[in-house]
Amino acid sequence: MADVLRSLDFTQGVPADLVELDDFELLTNAVRNERNTQDILEYKHDLVERVHQRLEDQTARVESWKEASRTNRFPEEEVDMSVPILCCTLNINRFRFLLKAYWRARLQKVERFATLILDNQELQRNCSPKELNHCLQYFVAVGKCLKEVVLARLPDEFQTLVQESQLTETRDMIPMPRLDRCVFVKLLKDAGHVAVDSEGQQLVDMKAGDIYIIQYHHIQRLIQQDIAVLI
Q1: What is the pTM of this model?
Q2: 8 A C-beta contact, residue 84 and residue 5
Q3: Which among 96, 130, 179, 223 is most buried, taking Cβ atoms within 10 Å?
Q4: Paired strand residues for 204
Q5: Which CATH class is domain 2-111?
Q6: pLDDT digits over 125-179, tens only?
Q7: What residues does each domain of the chain span?
Q8: Alpha-carbon distances of 58 from 85, 109, 164, rounded to whole Å
């Protein structure tokens, strides 16, 4: 797409995200990681804000091009803006799709593990303010529904959402992510020697471009640090 605009000499004034694919790749990797693990990963504040701002700028630019085309206000004669408008529109649409996919994937996990998130401050720090607000509202709404429909009809000791019975001390009904499931992972950078067993005795020298199938908790740190991506 950038090649098309460059050949038409329309790259000047075009946002960097149309010429450089870094943000697109970062957002694609973020979506893959969110979809392929149950872990509550850190919210990509900077990336999302940067992409959102560029989408607004690029949308405004496309609208200005369309308006200029309708009123023939281009300084050059007989300039056909249909191709750059199409390229920019396609670029906007693909970024919007990825951004919505990222939010949807995270919201699904926020709803699934709402009780765990509200009970864990570290996981709360991994969520955005809007996600935390949604998490709380979801927990309250679902909890109220379950209490009115089901729990109110049970004996008092069973009227809890986080324990099988109030007679037990542990919160044994809080859903937990499965971090021991096997995943496919691709290294984006050299990771050095990584332990691939529970005892930490078996080490593998993981290099950029390598692909492994491995239990998630062994490479959880690599995913959190953007050293690897789930595929």
Answers
A1: 0.84
A2: yes
A3: 223
A4: 194
A5: mainly alpha
A6: 999 999 999 999 999 999 999 999 988 888 888 888 888 777 777 788 889 999 9
A7: 2-111, 113-177, 178-231
A8: 10, 31, 53
